[in-house]
Amino acid sequence: MIIHRAFYREAAQVTLAIAAVLLVLILLMSLTALLGRAARGEYSESIIPLMLGLQLLKKLDLLLGLALYLGILLTLGRWYRDNEMTVLAACGVGLSQLLRPVFLLALVFALAVGAVSLYFTPLASRQIEKVKSESPHRQEIGSVTPGTFMEAAGSQSIIYAAGVNPESGRLENIFVSNLKLGNQAVVVAGTAHAFTEAGTEHKYLALRNGTLYDGAPGEADYRIVDFEALNLRLRPKKAAAASVGIEGAPTWRLWARTDGDHAAELHWRLAKPVAVFVLAAFALVLAYTDPRRGRLTNLFAAILVYFIYSNLLGLGQTLIKKGVVPPALGLWWVHVGLALIAFYLFARRSANKPLLSLPARAR
Questions:
Q1: Could you tell me which InterPro entries the record lists for this protein (predicted)?
Q2: Whether 33 and 168 share a structural domain
Q3: List of E strands, 83-168
Q4: Model confidence over 14-49: pLDDT tens digits?
Q5: 240 domain residue, yes or no
Q6: Is the pTM of this model over 0.70?
């Protein structure tokens, strides 16, 4: 049918455009968080691109579902504003005839969302933990940014460098604190560079032309030593083994567990593809645009429905964990309840009735 093909084409284009915008927003937020952690020395900048891709993969299922919801809403909303829906109604094509293309498109996205939610999202969670455990936990000394404090390998020291010599690449005007020398040590040096001892692979910080202040905090008996050369060994902590929580557990393993935490995670993964159909039904209903109320009224109502749906799913997940809702019921009460509301509103919209039946004013 020509109408169906036109809907598929426009809805797909709008959905992909919205997905691209959401993708950029997620990338920017994730990149900001990752750069902040790298600046604090939690891990090396070298793993940021990989971590960014894995973080995106974890959020891809929610991104696709939201993009389709808004894509259907905006596509049909334009049809209403341009009176295309009015023309279709005059030709005998009502909302009921749009159910098939809307839910066929939702089926395609639900399959993609289901694959991401049930397989790729937990896989990404496992890979994130693996990358964290295998990558350096702290930045190398050579990657110190001038003018910023950095926690060095194994949290053994705090290092500050005022600048870097462009020719030699050595740090200049160094301040180092908490190096585990005696009680409390502070070192101020003219230059510094890192090196690895041959044979032992131990890392050292070579300080040149400086002063060591060593003593107990709060006491006046500090030991002050001027030096020409001082090598401080950096003792990195052992990398912790990758800890795979419930979020990273394979879906097949969740089926075999009956406790609340595993059941809540399983139903949360299943909820994402199911929500695609429920949201598609709401988009079909809420797309109607009344010229007298403006274009943003239906968009506001759609966003409100999305947040209510998301909060109810979050509440249901908490109730499953606490044992209030049995695992067999899961989150289906949320899906079924909202689906019934969506189809009730669809019936009123198809009959050209207002979505909400308000009592008439007394004259």
A1: LptF, LptG/LptF_permease
A2: no
A3: 149-151, 158-164
A4: 999 999 999 999 999 999 988 877 766 666 677 888
A5: no
A6: yes
